Amino acid sequence: MKEAIEAILFSSPEPISAEKIAKIIGAEKKAVEEEIERLIEEYSSRKTALEIIKLGRRYLMRVKPEFSRYVEEYIERDLPKGVLRTLAVIALRQPIKLSELAKIRGNKCYEHVKKLKELGFVNVEKKGKNTILTTTKLFADYFGLKSANPEEIRKTLSKYVKRDAKLEDFL
Q1: Distance CA 6, CA 64 (A)
Q2: In what order do the strands lie in the sheet with 130-135?
Q3: Peptide bond into 95 cis (omega under 30)
Q4: Taking Cα atoms as reference points, which of 146, 148, 153, 147 lies closest to residue 93?
Q5: Cα dihedral 171/116/107/85 (nearest 10)
Q6: Distance from first CA to last CA of the chain, Å, rounded?
């Protein structure tokens, strides 16, 4: 079972639930969760460039953030560039009103926000007539950020934004 779970995690391009893994391999969900926890411990106890992380109720095997620069040109992006840019603007300007985001990113941002909410990367909160957007802990975990604190996120992302002239304006 361990090897089957490891193969599924390795092959899955997006976070996958223990429930779905259990269905694929014909095992009990609880047994799969326990085995994934053992795998997480195993990967964290040895020197490897890979890790398994828990994102909400799903799991993801990925290259550790400190090694990602070595594989950037070989990996497919999980999110289209436009969605990533929208996420970057939210992260840099949070808390940000949806209406303000639309002025910055255009009407496509509504679909982007819907996708980002489904993935669990942004919180969408109604305050009166406004919709306020912020990033989540899942966002910070997924992108290998040490903190989910908005100030820390801005500081960390500002280093990377300098590489993208279109985003630099939002600092």
Answers
A1: 16
A2: 96-97, 130-135, 122-127
A3: yes
A4: 153
A5: 30
A6: 47
Distance CA 94, CA 92 (A): 6
Q: What are the tokens at 55?
A: 């994102």
Give the integer Cα–Cα distance in Å for 105 and 112. Answer: 10
Distance CA 102, CA 100 (A): 5
Rounded Cα–Cα distance for residues 117 and 106 (Å): 18
Do the Cβ atoms of 148 and 136 come closer than 8 Å?
Answer: yes
Tokens of 42: 């195993």
Cα 19 to its chain centre, rounded Å, is 20
CA dist 158 and 134 (Å) reads: 17
pTM of the model: 0.59
H helical segments located in the chain = 2-11, 18-25, 29-45, 81-93, 98-105, 109-119, 137-142, 150-161, 165-168
> Tokens for 50?
């890979």
pLDDT one digit per residue (tens) for the chain, 171 residues: 999 999 999 998 788 999 999 999 999 999 999 999 999 999 999 999 999 998 878 899 988 878 877 876 666 556 788 888 899 899 989 999 999 999 999 999 999 999 899 888 999 999 999 999 999 988 887 777 778 888 888 777 776 666 555 555 554
